[in-house]
Design goal:
This protein folds into five domains: 119 residues, PAS domain (Beta-Lactamase); 107 residues, PAS domain (Beta-Lactamase, 2-Layer Sandwich), CATH 3.30.450.20; 174 residues, 3-Layer(aba) Sandwich (Rossmann fold); 67 residues, Orthogonal Bundle (Helicase, Ruva Protein, domain 3), CATH 1.10.8.60; 79 residues, no CATH class. Helices cover 45% and strands 19% of the residues. It is built from 25 helices and 19 strands.
Length: 652
């Protein structure tokens, strides 16, 4: 086809139009925007883009505008809507894959029922150059009046600059390459105490920057302000002083910025501010911080004192008793506390195993770090890993934030695994790894974390026998049982009952805000004659109850009656042993493990009968047995005992 015609031309018109397009200095492009096709172009466009006509017509129209496709779409759409359109913010892609800014005048026309576009394309840099040349020519022709107008405009700019300098709150002055002052703003004059005429043309350094604050000379060749117009670098200083006309001094911070004229350093402009108030504020802040530090040290001392008071409540020297079992226990604590060896504390419920664990921790080098207690019997199976090792956000339903586990909290300190024998067998392996390697991963996390934790475990079960019965992992048992300590039951240390009772009475009176009460000899004999199945915890409960019930300065101690032995639930061999034992005390009886378990189950059932199936609370089965409610719940599950079956059995 021929290069664009807005109508169907005659033959001579088409030839003339084609000749005009070929000889035109303006680059012309005919295109069909609907099918993205180049229809024709003239030699000026070939020269502009550095590509031949055949190559240009072989590629899509959009390929010529690949870097500015959104603007091309906007241009074509506007031209199709309005018939004509202009754009000065578009670029063409040249044969060298470069981007050429152009100006485009677009016209829309119809040929053979097709909507086509004619684009007149001009190099934007050439157009700008012609415009500038035209403007210069116009200025030249404007003559003297126009030059006077421009001179006035420059004077207005200078006046505005002077207004800006006058309004600035910082001091501003300029120096030339010889150090002479070229201008000073009013804020600088006010701070320095000089008049403008006294500073302009003078060496600024020798006038107000000549000496350090201590009075020593400040040579000009060391001055950062002068250095700016020698090395061309911006210098920022915040620890020097300027001298006023009256000889006084004030601290400043300043920036010296070099000035260049066509690449040559011709001077510097200096912006400075008086920082006296800021320095005073900093000094006051330092004094306040020093006072805060003093108060902090005092609080730390008070905190250390309070910590010492807390430790005194739990230190092994405060373990009450003078019996041989207690003396032996204290010797073991002193031996193992300075080490990091794992400790396994065994003994019946209520004998003070946690107190022994705390005494070991408080006597160890880790005493400044936390002792984290974990009741293994109270942790649900499904939350075991989260409780011990923590979890990350989104690890499971309800995990709305990252949460550290008990081992992470105990890092650098001690973790006390209470009732460790209650851990299910399948969860013991997960615990073993962190005990062996001191490494773990939070639930849902792939990052392995390392901790430094000392292990103290406690149990009221015979772990050695449970290992033999494959109810407790042997490797975990040996990992825990490095240094065993046995917590003796209260019936084996009756000589400690007077000391313990006196100590517990004092604590209960303080807690309940009662006047101090004395322990009578009759009360003491009553306490020492009791068999104490719940050990010290049971003694503590009975003492607290007695203090509550006390009247007229006298204790009212009530001891529970011994639970009836349900021999029908025991084996015939055990019943025969009881009949021939010749002693009514538990120490006169030796039981097999099976008999002991049957006895334990029957004892729990008797407690539930007496409490009507109630487990927790002051009048619950756990208190009656002298154990903690979580431990009793664990035993109920182990023995498959439904406490609800006894809910109507309470006799009162």
């Amino acid at each position: 086809m021929t290069l664009l015609t807005p109508h169907k031309p005659a033959a001579h018109e088409s030839t003339a139009w084609r000749a005009a397009a070929l000889s035109s200095g303006a680059a012309m492009l005919c295109c069909d925007p609907l099918i993205d096709r180049v229809m024709d172009c003239n030699p000026a466009l070939e020269a502009l883009l550095g590509s031949e006509r055949s190559a240009l017509m072989a590629q899509p129209m959009s390929a010529l505008f690949a870097d500015d496709l959104p603007r091309l779409i906007s241009l074509t759409q506007a031209c199709l809507d309005k018939g004509r359109y202009y754009s000065g913010e578009i670029s063409l892609r040249t044969a060298q894959q470069g981007s050429l800014p152009v100006e485009i005048h677009a016209s829309a026309f119809v040929e053979n029922e097709r909507q086509l576009l004619l684009l007149l394309i001009f190099d934007a840099s050439e157009v700008q150059a012609r415009r500038e040349q035209t403007e210069l020519h116009w200025l030249h022709r404007g003559g003297l009046l126009e030059w006077k107008r421009i001179e006035g405009a420059f004077r207005e700019v200078e006046r505005n600059n002077q207004l800006i300098l006058s309004a600035a709150g910082e001091g501003i002055y300029g120096v030339n390459a010889e150090g002479a002052t070229t201008f000073v703003n009013p804020a600088a004059l006010k701070m320095l105490g000089w008049e403008a005429g006294e500073l302009i043309g003078r060496d600024a350094h020798t006038v107000f920057h000549h000496t350090h604050q201590d009075g020593t000379p400040y040579p000009s060749h060391c001055c950062p302000i002068y250095a700016a117009f020698n090395d061309g670098i911006v210098h920022v200083v915040d620890d020097e002083v300027f001298w006023r006309k009256d000889g006084s001094v004030f601290p400043v911070e300043y920036t010296s910025t070099p000035i260049r004229d066509e690449g040559t350093l011709v001077g510097a402009v200096v912006v400075f501010r008086d920082v006296s108030e800021r320095r005073d504020a900093e000094r006051r802040l330092r004094l306040a911080l020093a006072e805060v530090e003093t108060l902090k040290e005092r609080l730390e001392m008070e905190n250390a004192y309070l910590q010492e008071e807390i430790r005194a409540e739990h230190d092994y020297r405060q373990i009450v008793g003078r019996s041989q079992p207690i003396k032996h226990c204290i010797r073991q604590i002193k031996l193992v506390a300075p080490t990091d060896a794992p400790v396994l504390i065994t003994g019946e419920s209520g004998t003070g195993k946690e107190l022994i664990a705390r005494a070991i921790h408080e006597s160890s080098p880790r005493s400044q770090r936390p002792l984290i207690r974990v009741n293994c019997a109270a942790i649900p199976r499904e939350l075991f890993e989260s409780e011990f090792f923590g979890h990350i956000r989104g690890a499971f339903t309800g995990a709305t934030a990252d949460r550290p586990g008990r081992f992470e909290l105990a890092d650098g300190g001690t973790i006390f695994l209470d009732e460790v024998g209650e851990l299910p067998l399948d969860l013991q392996g997960k615990l073993l790894r962190v005990l062996q390697d001191q490494q773990f991963e939070r639930v849902g996390d792939t990052r392995t974390r390392t901790v430094d934790v000392r292990i103290i475990a406690a149990t009221n079960r015979q772990l050695r026998q449970e290992v033999e019965q494959r109810q407790f992992r042997e490797d975990l048992y040996f990992r825990l049982n490095v240094f065993p300590i046995e917590s003796a039951p209260l019936r084996q240390r009756t000589e400690d009952i007077p000391l313990l009772a006196t100590h517990l009475i004092a604590q209960a009176c303080k807690k309940l805000k009662k006047p101090e009460l004395a322990l009578s000899l009759a009360d003491l004999e009553k306490l020492q004659s009791y068999h104490w199945p719940g050990n010290i915890r049971e003694l503590e409960n009975i003492i607290e109850r007695a203090v509550i019930l006390s009247a007229a300065g006298r204790l009212h101690i009530e001891l529970p009656s011994r639970p009836a032995q349900a021999s029908g639930a025991l084996s015939d061999g055990f019943a025969a042993k009881r009949a021939g034992a010749g002693s009514s005390t538990p120490e006169g009886l030796v039981m097999t493990e099976q008999e002991r378990r049957l006895s334990e189950r029957e004892n729990i059932i008797n407690a539930l009968r007496q409490t009507g199936g109630k487990v927790s609370g002051a009048d619950g089965a756990a208190a009656l047995l002298g154990i903690k409610p979580p431990s009793l719940y664990s035993r109920l599950r182990r023995w498959h005992i439904d406490r609800r079956a006894f809910s109507q059995a309470r006799p009162y």
